[in-house]
Amino acid sequence: MSEFKNVTLIKKANVYYDGKVTSRTVIFADGTKKTLGIMMPGEYTFDTAAAEVMEMLGGSMEVLLPGAETWQSFHEGQSFEVPANSQFSLKIKEVADYCCSYLK
């Protein structure tokens, strides 16, 4: 899906790591949420409350998923899931464009 229709967009950005990771929240009519964002090169760790699906829209990232011992590479067109109430780490070597879907 390259565009979303009939949604509410929160204007205020979600800003992390001194602006190196930013996103905007999109709310759908059924109440589900996604964020569309950009990550600049760096290393980041995030905690989850809800389960998430991270879809790569551009660039790439190395991901250390919860419980994993090895890093995995994800590129444009690929996605990965992160369980609720967990933590995952990212290594970004080039600008990464992503869509994060929050699962209920």
Can I get a quick summary?
The chain has strands spanning 7-9, 14-16, 21-28, 33-39, 42-47, 52-58, 60-64, 72-75, 79-82, 87-92, 96-102. The chain is mainly beta and 104 residues long.
Structural summary, described in words:
The chain is 0% helix and 58% strand. The chain has 104 residues and is mainly beta. It has a single domain, classed as Sandwich (Jelly Rolls). It holds the Pfam family Ppnp. This is Pyrimidine/purine nucleoside phosphorylase. Keywords: Glycosyltransferase, Transferase. GO terms for molecular function: guanosine phosphorylase activity; purine-nucleoside phosphorylase activity; thymidine phosphorylase activity; uridine phosphorylase activity.
Pick out its properties.
single chain; RmlC-like_jellyroll; thymidine phosphorylase activity; four-stranded antiparallel β-sheet; EC 2.4.2.2; mainly beta; seven-stranded antiparallel β-sheet; Ppnp; Jelly Rolls; 104 residues
Could you outline the blueprint of secondary structure elements for this entry?
Layout (H helix, E strand, L loop, with lengths): L6 E3 L4 E3 L4 E8 L4 E7 L2 E6 L4 E7 L1 E5 L7 E4 L3 E4 L4 E6 L3 E7 L2
Antiparallel strand pairs: 1-3, 2-3, 3-4, 4-11, 5-10, 6-9, 6-11, 7-8, 7-10
GO molecular function: guanosine phosphorylase activity; purine-nucleoside phosphorylase activity; thymidine phosphorylase activity; uridine phosphorylase activity
Protein name: Pyrimidine/purine nucleoside phosphorylase
Keywords: Glycosyltransferase, Transferase
